[in-house]
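Review box. Two proteins, two foldings.
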Amino acid sequence: MLNSYAQSSVNGKIGDNSNKQNFISNAVLITNQQRYFFSDYNGEFSVELNQGEFIYKVIYKGFEDLEIFENFSNLKMIPKKSIDAKEIEACRIDSISKNHSFFTNYKFKSLSKTRITNQKSDFVLRKDIDLRLTRQEGLQMKFNAVSVDGIDEVVPKMVNKDIFSFNWFQTHVEIFDERFVSPFNTFNLVNYKFYSIYETSEFEVIQFEPILKGFQRSFKGILLLNKSTSKFEKIQVTLDADFRLNMTTIFDLGSGLPKDIDLNIYPGTGGTKLSFFGGGMSFGRIQKKNPDDEAELKHQQVYYDFVASDSISPFPKSLSKVLEDKNQIIPDAYWENFEFSFISEKEHNTEDLVTYVEEENIKNRVERISAFDAGYFPVGIVDVDLTRLVKANNYEGLRLGLGLQTNQSFSEKYRLGGFTAYGTQDGNFKYGFNAGMLLNSDSATWFNAFYDNDIEEVGMNNYLTDQRVYSLFEPRLVNITFFYKYEKYGLSLQHNFSPQLISEFKLDKSNISQTRNYEFLNDGTLYDNYNLTSATFGLRWTPNYTYSKVGKRIYINNTSAPEVSAQLSQSFNGVLDGDFNFTKLSAKVDYDFIHSWGSVSSIELGGDLGFGDIPLMHTFHAFPNSPNKEGVFNRFSVAGVKSFETMYFNEFFSTKLATLHMKHRLAPFKISNTIQPELVLISRHAIGDFNNPEQHQNISFNNLSQGYNEAGFELNKLLFGFGLSFAYRYGAYHLPDLEDNISFKFTFYLKL
């Protein structure tokens, strides 16, 4: 027994006496005052003792209880021949976890500080937040202040990026953007084993570990259960893998909510990028895929002033996070007004930080990285649209372009934009202009006017409410051959009924002309060029997405399936010289099933219906992506994201169409830190029909009335984001020559 009357703190390290390399994490140190402390991921501990307090026992499953030892610097535990820890049934853990379900509404406050240190300069992020936890809206945060030392401007990532998940009892826990299987969720209990290793009349100490050894997406840990409340009092989890972490959560016994968080993350064996801003910046970086320096993230957070009452209402806006004034500058003195000393402690030399921020141009780089995530590069008051710089297709050849749009530095309320592009093969310029005015920031209501003179793929059906998706290039564009020209002008209104239900209504007038010898026969008249007057209304519903508001703009905070989109379009004959009357209806649903072992199953179901006098340009295709060439290797190109790889361009068109895409992506295979390929199994299906094909002159095509099927796989991210794709066409539309049914291509997925 070790007395420590003469000292206030004890530091040491716990190891296995049978293996010098094996340090014991989550060992429990018990004092004579019945206080409990845990060794960290590296076997180390640091204990602050009260007057007259001493450590008298160290316990860990599978080892002899350590009661007497000579010193704390290097403790060695002896393995037992038999394990006497009592395994706990999963149903009991489930019952304990449910004691933390909240049956009333809460309001409370939080202060947090995140510090990332490496060989460059400290990154320090502070947040002061008011929170509401209600049955109606879940967890909501209203930011009173947020700041990063050395940077005045707030970018959305400072608000949106969570260092860890608040709720330990949901299916997955996210820590610094990495997803882990929660040990305390009902559906995940089959992945863990729990052992009771020590018990008194007041407390029970429970140790847990993943059933699958070496499972990267799980924790080892220790749980201190308070018997009087049957609630968690303290949890510690550790990880020693791609990166290393140690996280301790202390709970408020009244509410069952966390009240104190202490998280440390360090570089591990590598293979995972850990960076607050990303983009290759050392500022805010813990490790690259191949760690090359010492670094540490230390996150401290407290929750306090808990108030529980059914009368507490959620914040009025259906948003998960709100920062009203993004331009507010937070002085250092602000953080000195709180009773928690950690929030105001200085972690670095202020003069050195200012010099570093200026020399490395950190402020501008942070703003550019935030914009680059959405495919923009800010230059002063305008953003350059990176999606318009370079494209290629079989009609224009190389398409060189420039798109500009004003950003919030120009105005929070107004926006202006435009683009121009030139095709090296067709020799024509395309261009467009747009302007928007923000009518209501809470509902993201924008009134827009636009003019475009450009080309569009025949059979393409774009959803107005599809979120902007940025990639370095768009795979299908390379092989497209059949376009039509349009000159279009109109008005649109974008409005969010709620952050989860967004809409757009558009009125436009179009003049259509052809790029090849096509004519549409309608009421005895042949049309190659024609006019359309159309109205389109689209909805997008993402019930499980969370959204934030930073300043006057709404941002996606977190994505979670499903995504449901629907659209109705009507063209009017005789209105503003419109030539045809037709209707188009479209809907689709996307759903991702995330499995605990790291794989993801995805399904997309879509349907399109058109009726009336519809020219071929405005019918539907199933996203074919096979060049019209003989020989498998002559068709070697880029695989699309959601396209039929064995379906030839212009082979099928439909006025009625249903498609089903199914994918199952396995967890990455870690060959090395930089080579971690992903295997994706794919099954795609389409069925459709075409009304009045005789109206369409000088072109031949098939319908999908017998059902189209293809299956295949992708091996992605083999090297520098490149991979390989294989697909095979089978069923009713199987072609006589075997090689005509085969697609072999490369894939490209790169996360910057």
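Next protein.
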Amino acid sequence: MAILARSFAAAILLLSTTTFGFAANKIIIILDASGSMWAQIDGKPKLEIARESLRTVLQSVPAADEIGFMAYGHREKGSCDDIQLIVPPQAGSASAISAAADSMKFLGKTPLTAAVKQAAEALRYTEDKATVVLITDGLETCGGDPCALGKELEASGVDFTADVVGFGLTADEGKQIACLADNTGGKYIQASDEKALQEALVETVAAPAPTLEPAPAPAPEPAKSEFNFMPTVVLAEGGDPVTDGNAWEVYKAKSDGTRGDNITTEYGDYKANLEPGDYIVVARDGEAKVEQKVKIEAGQVYKPLFTLNAGTLILHPRPSQGADVVSGAAVVIAYPGVGNPPTYYGDTKVVLPAGDEKVTVTIGQGVVTETIPLAAGRVIDKDIIVGVGHVLANAYYAAGGDKADGSGIGFKVLKAKKKIDGTRDEVTYAYGPDSKFDLPPDDYVLIATVDLAVVEQPFSVKVGEFQDLKVAMDAGVLAITAPGTSKIEIFETKKDINGNRKSIGYAYDEKYQAAIAAGDYAVVSEKSDNSKKEGTVTVKAGERVELTVQ
């Protein structure tokens, strides 16, 4: 990874003598923050790959280039209006973009068409050259038409370009959104893994401009007046100034002393020339914020100090002592004054208001809650041990035989201890081969299902231990053909006291294939005229048997 990062950094440095996008200094990167970004590529969530790729590419971008950052689907589930320009286009925005991406939730829908439209408008695409780089792992889910939007923006823009990076999309899916890039003269790039995504970001965000004749040197600008507003923010009284990752919001103050229009939002070390008047200034770092009223008078210089009364919490969620950090672990921090606690994932570093921080970490079905006292100016770096064991479950037709790897495979985990009514509490479930579970220490029962075959297997979990559960289904595969029939039904051969046979499974088709427990069965085929034919069959564990009923 380090070698890859250095190679991309070198590539960007070689391009640092050019401007982004040729004759346009402003770009907005749009990141798909929908729930589908939790899907994994090579065992790693796509959202983590996107975060790391952004951080790698942006670190070496020349400071003069103005880049903005927009996301959709990161605040609400099921909302097509969840689109936000988080970092407006500005120079030196790399750290702000990385910080925004690192703290982002991934849970919503995919309104990519509306997001591109809003980004174009934020760049004033009808007045200036504008470039939007869209990173998406899914197709439009909010009714927008990306192809039509591309034509509209191309027709009404001064020089608008949309580059689209299809992250983990199939070739057919990519064709459905490539038109957005094609219709604006942009590029569509298919990125199937981490290396391809970083290459795509270098090509779109840091692509070199054509060689041009040097522009005439601009006339000297008149000397700017001295800054009249130079605020400083600290985490605690007497602490060092915070100049990285923090934000400043400046509002006009209304006559009643409340916030009016937002004048600007800046990041890092902030200095400005403000017009005389009354303002409300908010200083933020992580989840901590403080605001002050400021009155600017002509000819005066103001250097207010903002004290956040906050500390830094660094958490490493681990399933057991000494185990690796789980990147998908959910970390919920209820800090003083918050109503809706934010959720972070994996390694978490965040600035929080001083006080008792209630931290809840979830790995699989394991949950642990700790209260951590955090003093202003302090940095607490600690592991959070959830205490789970790891289970890998697979079904085999017979002990030592073939592994079941088709459809119809499911696993359900129940508590081993029965309740007073004889039932057991369900803990979790999963589908398909190689199903993985992270479980607290306890005794459990695994119910494995392969088509019509069902087997229970008890097991126990200890913290930090790995179990490879190989469930022997004692089943075979029964393939039935009944030409001209409308229904095939499988029964147990043994009848109950009333003379009825238990139905095991059925299909409305001329063919029916399913895994089934070893044993003797009766197969009945039924035609549309209600006439029936019956056959019998014996299924052996680990074997395939074919039966024709006609």
